[in-house]
Amino acid sequence: MLKPVATATREAIKLDGLWDFDIAREGVERPWTGALNSGLEAAVPASYNDQFIDPAIRDHVGWVWYQRDVQVPRGWDGERILIRIDAATHEGAVYVDDDFVGGHVGGYLPFAVDVTDKVEAGGTFRLTIGVNNELTNETIPPGTVSVDMLGRRKQTYLHDFYNYAGLARSVWLVSIPQVSVTDVTVTTDVIDGAGRVGYRVHTSGDAEVRVRAVDATGTEVGAATGAEGVVVIRDVNLWQPGAAYLYTLQVEAVVDDSVVDTYPQTFGVRTVEVRGSEFLINGEPFYFTGFGKHEDTAIRGKGHDDAYLVHDFQLLDWIGANSFRTSHYPYAEEVMDFADRHGIVVIDETAAVGLNLGVASGLTGEPNRPTFSPETCNDVTQAVHAQHIRELIGRDKNHPSVVMWCIANEPASNEEGALEYFEPLVELTRSLDPTRPVCYAAVMFAQPDNDRIAQLFDVLCLNRYYGWYVAVGDLQLAEVYLAGEMGKWAEKYDKPMMMTEYGADTLAGVNSVWEAPWSEEYQRAYLEMNHRVFDSIPQFVGEQIWNFADFQTSNGIHRVDGNKKGVFTRDRRPKAVAHDLRQRWSALRGTKPSHADSSD
Ligand code: GCB
């Protein structure tokens, strides 16, 4: 899906700001047919939960309503008019005045609704957006809604982050021409120093297509005509980790010799390849350093915020990180664009987190139920997951920063049914994008001898907590466990391996002369031990710590005001370990630790 932009033929107006707000209330059947009148206002973009003090709002399960009046510019007569919602978590329903005009399921990806026939250029209309936060066994991510003994609806879920909901990203009023560019796909290759830029353009209605590639100074470096083709850029400037370079493909739709639509698609020229046990970017072995992140800040919840975006990337730079994973859902498009511009490498993850009832029973002590069954993750879940993959790739396929798709976090890949569930999804991902490797992040219970799906994927991405959930406080034993398991993966598969999660909860300001869990000293020692093991394994291609920053979770005896595994606190202050990482990663600069190379 193309992102909203203003060009000579398109306009895009952000509808961000304060909207009238209410939660669904008994007796109010069709709240969109009139003013909400609750007296509440909510900021957009932001999750609504922490904006309010009332727990009935914060913990509400079901629909909430956002409403505002919208003015349509008078110059838009004859144009197609869309409402574009960057994310409605987890389901959105859009109403223009009294009428339903469209909706979308899936909380972290955009959708657009055509309202041309419902609104008038120069007029105003009442826009109401309903957002539902419910998660079931047939949503991605999954969850369960139940009614407790007091008759209250409760949402439970299997992932370890707070179920923030609402309009966490921008809402737009967009105009596009009647005949317009509807999709652009760019793929790149490099042959003898020249960039080979393959493109494919879809238009609505009959139009000729012209494309011009321009460099960062705006100079034309290649051109082509036709809906599909190749543009060759001589002496190409590569997009490199840490040294981004972006071109723009100026796409034009032409009818009867006049340009009816223009769309600028940025791209970078780079290659990604898995060869043997190496991960290559532009033909060079790449070693990932960085984090699993979250979209999470105080008050805003998962609300996108440009100031945090800038600051987080400043911290990535300061600490010498070259990459992150969009754990555990697609991030705001602003984040992906920023990574493109600043040369940060991204593993792009779906919202398929918590497809694992084994982890849940481990935490709750309830009897283990199979994860893949008609009552749990079933054919419908799989179809929803497939649709989510289609939409993610549709949105993010042109980002040079994205070097790998991660189609699930910690699924029950050790359980019966995992292969049948995942095989078609991996095939789908590869057919949608043959240019990028595909991975999943493997849970601790999935070991080399019982994991059923690792062979389907290109890179072994492992989440391991030896020294925290296993052998807590005993790093000597943890090291033996970790080294033992890593050795078995390396022996069984000739694939690149990386640690996509490892970490220890650490309360900033807790210090100890011993290696006491929760202390800053323990986090340092824990990471040092992990790195010693990683550095001894030739197949290792990267380390992404859990987590970049402390983040909010649901309540639980394992969490103290959220998850504290951050290298930074929730307000982005470094814990002691940040300085160690800065030293290690600044020295590595994307290359493999040298002592691991020497054992090749
Ligand atoms: C995991 C999950 C992550 C959790 C983390 C933890 O394995 O992938 O979402 O937050 O462990 O801290 O327990």
Outline the structure in words.
The chain has an eight-stranded parallel barrel. It is globular. The two termini are 44 Å apart. The chain is α+β, with helices and mostly antiparallel strands. The protein is built from ten helices and 32 strands. (2S,3S,4S,5R)-3,4,5-trihydroxy-6-oxo-oxane-2-carboxylic acid binds next to loops.
Question: What are the defining features of this structure?
Answer:
600 residues; alpha+beta; eight-stranded parallel barrel; six-stranded antiparallel beta sheet; 31% strand; globular; binds (2S,3S,4S,5R)-3,4,5-trihydroxy-6-oxo-oxane-2-carboxylic acid
Question: How would you concisely characterize the structure shown here?
Answer:
With about 600 residues, the chain is an alpha+beta fold. The strands form 8 sheets. Strands 25-26-27-28-29-30-31-32 form an 8-stranded parallel beta barrel.
What's the helix and strand layout?
Blueprint: E1 11-14, E2 17-23, E3 40-44, E4 46-47, H1 55-58, E5 63-71, E6 80-85, E7 91-96, E8 99-105, E9 111-114, E10 124-132, E11 143-147, E12 153-157, E13 166-167, E14 171-176, E15 181-191, E16 194-203, E17 208-214, E18 220-225, E19 228-233, E20 247-255, E21 258-267, E22 272-275, E23 278-281, E24 284-285, E25 288-292, H2 306-319, E26 323-325, H3 333-342, E27 345-349, H4 357-364, H5 379-396, E28 402-409, H6 418-432, E29 438-442, E30 460-463, H7 475-492, E31 497-501, H8 520-535, E32 540-546, H9 577-588, H10 594-598
Parallel strand pairs: 25-26, 25-32, 26-27, 27-28, 28-29, 29-30, 30-31, 31-32
Antiparallel strand pairs: 1-14, 2-3, 2-5, 4-13, 5-10, 6-9, 6-14, 7-8, 7-10, 11-12, 15-16, 16-19, 17-18, 17-20, 20-21, 22-23, 23-24
Helix pairs in contact: 2-3, 5-6, 7-8
The protein binds (2S,3S,4S,5R)-3,4,5-trihydroxy-6-oxo-oxane-2-carboxylic acid.
